[in-house]
Amino acid sequence: xxxxxxxxxxxEGARSHGDPYLPTSGNGGYTVLHYDLxxxxxxSSNRLAATATITxxxxxxxxxFSLDFAGLVASKVxxxxxxxxxxxxxxxxxxITPASPINSGDEFTVVVRYGGQPKPxxxxxxxxxxxxxxxxVIVAGQPSGAPSWFPxxxxxxxxxxxxxxxxxxxxxxxxxxxxxxxxxxxxxxTRWEFQQTEPMASYLATVQIGLYETMGISQSGxxxxxxxxxxxxPNALADFEPQQRMMExxxxxxxxxxxxxxxxxxxxxxxxxxxxxxxxAVFGRNHIDGLGGSERLIAxxxxxxxxxxxxxxxxxxxxxxxxxxxCYAEWLWSEESxxxxxxxxxxxxxxxxxxxPKDITVGDPGAARMFDDRLYKRGALTLHALxxxxxxxxxxxxLRHWAATYRHGSVSTPxxxxxxxxxASVPVRALFAAWLDQSALPKLPxx
Length: 447
Known about the structure:
Layout: E1 11-12, E2 30-42, E3 47-58, E4 62-68, E5 73-79, E6 82-83, E7 86-89, E8 93-97, E9 107-116, E10 121-123, E11 126-133, E12 136-140, E13 160-169, E14 173-176, E15 179-186, E16 189-200, E17 207-210, E18 213-216, E19 224-228, H1 233-239, H2 243-254, E20 262-266, E21 275-277, E22 280-283, H3 295-303, E23 312-313, H4 320-336, H5 342-354, H6 373-390, H7 392-405, E24 410-411, H8 413-423, H9 429-436
Parallel strand pairs: 1-4, 2-13, 19-20, 20-22, 23-24
Antiparallel strand pairs: 2-3, 3-9, 4-8, 5-6, 5-9, 7-8, 10-11, 11-12, 13-16, 14-17, 15-16, 18-19, 21-22
């Protein structure tokens, strides 16, 4: 049925998702279902030419809508095959007026041709998104860097499937999210095609480009690989050797690994911190010493595949559900590997946190403190307090049920508390209120 050309009942989609932590990110009026990104990139000149085909569903009648988009230039935009009647590009938004309004509930397709020299997005947490290396690229999109390389609805609550294609000079290895379904070479360039079928938040979408060798590090179970510069191969073999046992532990405690495989990328450059993306993690050469110096970080990034990537927060204020869980996974691995027990880790970190200012609330830390180390540690302490209160059998049953119930979905703190209450034989509301809603540091329950 042809669309009505009447605009009497049509409205503009909001130019923000309304998340107070990132008030300029996300967009209203629609939900993205699928991104198809076809990218041609020149490493030598950092030049990108790309086409994004976005399939979305309107959540109300739309006369105009916006996409997050930063630092690149859109040259042509069409909606359902018809060129947009009006296109406005600001520093952070691509505002599109379709030829006729889109009815609520309708699926529609947006095609954006764009290009330029991608660069990171400036944020209060520093530069995020696309980053040139000495000889290659990484993309670390958390929390607002995805628009640095493709137009999107950049909020974690809008998870979608992805097809990502990158054509680059043939000397380079390319890694994107999902399964590599095809690789083809023509002249001096190679085309890499990936399919990410599991829903993914835009900040977790990534491309990694570099002069990498591929190492397999799993003998059974989930396939695991490391992409690494040739000279770091011996160190990487030593440092990632425990990861197979980490995977086995986390599958036992959290449930089945949620993706087809897991890849760790080691860049030839130094990085401040490791970075997670869906199905993979990125480390700098400074994290790989051949002596296990980053073992806890390897455990941390692996655990994010369950908590952060499969289960993704609906709003950024609940980020403790990512980072507190990943920090606690470090302590679980420490105990499994014969180092400090989780009890000892908790006692040690409680003492350290207790000496720091008590001016952060774990359940709603504020945008400036989303990545404060105290949130990570106090989030993990919250879980340890819960474990001590409920006992191991109930606690780990809760974690497995949590990961299974919301697999590939969006989560919130109230949903976690409700699930805990369904398993607990004692009241837990007061425990969560003390640990999540107050800045004072509670004492750990006796084990």
